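Lab channel / #folding
Pinned by the channel admin:
"Please post every new chain as: sequence first, then the structure tokens as a reply. Keep commentary short and put observations after the output so the thread stays searchable."

First post following the new format, from NK:
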Amino acid sequence: MLQCRRPLVLVLFFLWWGMANSETGERIRMSDVSQKDFGRCEVIEASIQIPQGKAPDLPQAPGWPKSTWCSAGYCPMKGAAFADLDQDGNLEIIAASTNGKVYVWDYLGNLRPGWPQTVIGLPQAGVAVGDVDGDGWLEVAVGTCQGRGRVYVFNRDGNTLAGWPVSLNDNEISEPPTLSDLNGDGKLEVIVGERVYPSGFLHVLRYDGTEFPGHWPFELDRVPAAAAAVGDIDDDGEKEIVFCSYWSIYALESDGALMPGWPYTPVDCHFSYNPPALADFEEDGYLEIVCSCHWDSSGFFVLDYQGNLLPGWPRPTPDEWTYCPPSVGDVDHDGDLEIAVGNAGFFAPQYVLHLFDIYGHYLPGFPLLLLSGAEGPVSVADIEGDSTMELIFDSNMTVGDVGYLRGTYSNGDSLPNWPLRPLGVTYMNGSTVGDVNNDGILEVSTISCVPYNNPTVEVNLWNLPKSYGKTSIEWGTYHFDNERTGLYRRKSPNQPPRPFGLISPDSGASVSRRPTFVWHASTNPDTIGGSVTYTLKYSLSSIFWGYEQTDSLTDTSYTLSNSLIPDTIYYWRVKADDGAPGGVTWADQGFWWFKIEAYVYGDADGDGMVDLPDVAFLMNYLFKEGEPPVPLASGDPNNDCVVNSADVVYLVNYIFKGGPEPSQGCA
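Reply from TO:
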């Protein structure tokens, strides 16, 4: 049916094209990773036909766009990341530019404290975000190139974690890190390719910057080409790493051993900037590997976990070029997964956006005929709340330095009020989709760039006009998730516990050494998961470097059994969890702080009073190896600088016989 439709579509398109305005446009192309000057933009001017009568753009969100500069000829890639770094329920917008800086803004466009951070080299390939050190807070990871390369991991306040940045022999890192817990210790490994032109190595680094144990680094046959993908491709219970050099695709065990049947090296087809996607299309436990490539026999193909082509593949592109990484999702809401991917195109009309099923068949309405190519990540999301997905994708064309972010329905029809028109080309950035301000309505972001003549970068954020459902984003950012794993996972329909707040100790309160923490109750809004339990954390650090934690609390209050340090500031927060994926909510206030009162002499148990339990506490310490008073001087009421049985007698005399009050002991 589609084959019969194409000639008519082409005729209608060229009739429309002939009636459109003729303007000078610019098409952007980037040097591939095999070049020593990889990542450099080339601008080609041509006369192109622009349609009339386009509806007005959607307005950008308040405080946006954010404008900065870039290194001439080197535009950022991979788009922005949305992540709740400060755990306030709203998402920060995280992006890097080739001015050597990494930025974090809140959803209103305000720079967060500690940002931007300046790095060595250019962070051209964007960022990854995840809890690298397993402390419950997200970190930002980035690799740099165009000079001395480094791998950085920043905490949410912009400070580098201990052991970072890491230099891989001063060599460049051309793609963003991939973050994944390979050994199940609760910390994320940082997976990066080291560029040693004309070849390279794949590294796995631990949370502290040291090399992961095993056969690492792994030597490649050519320069690293794209970010890693991570998942259990052979259903053995262990994660594997899929990685592309310019020439080949490798599948590696977590210890760096090459899996049987790999590498896969296609003929006259190379990889640049387009990492593979992983997904279980057949729901048999094994992951398929979806790839795109470029050069003389460019195209799209799907491999099984043993490196064999699946039936129906490869599918050629209409031209010989694509850097577009494949995206995966249930686009038409039929329960089966589809593959969305683009290619470079020309100034003339060309089929540039493709939507395939797992057998290599086009879905109705595709491929999509457009003037410009789509080579950044394609977002798959239900932005209209109608249970079917829309596709959002970039463009390699500008007219008058104004670019395009395009949107289409799952049948190939254009979205109303699209394309969006930011300053600069959106090429290689695609879009990021999420609810940044937690209002139930999606936002969409892209990074756009003017590479020459006052080089400029804009980070754009638009409010979308419709509400959405929990499962509305199938593939919402570069390489599926903020960790950049490339592993498609169906969204859980589970709703997190309802919002709740902290009660006491109030922020700024002065409390006893064994405080009681109290918070409001949260409830599970659906039948998924179970009853809500709470996790209490308290720390000497406002970023919770080093903390004490009490898990699985069912009540909404908890009294410490140990004494805290007198005259000291502590920070506390509470998390509600319903035990199902996606079922976590932090208290509305994020965290509160309190100060422990200066100790009372004779108050050995730290409850703020001098009474009979202090006698018992001292006796337990002196005669049964119990906990000591904190500080020890609080158990010296007779002021002789020794804690012994005489202090027990002193307290008994004070409490029961009206003896002298405890006096200041030895500090």
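NK: Confidence is low (pLDDT under 50) at residues 1-19.
TO: also worth noting, The longest helix spans residues 2-19.
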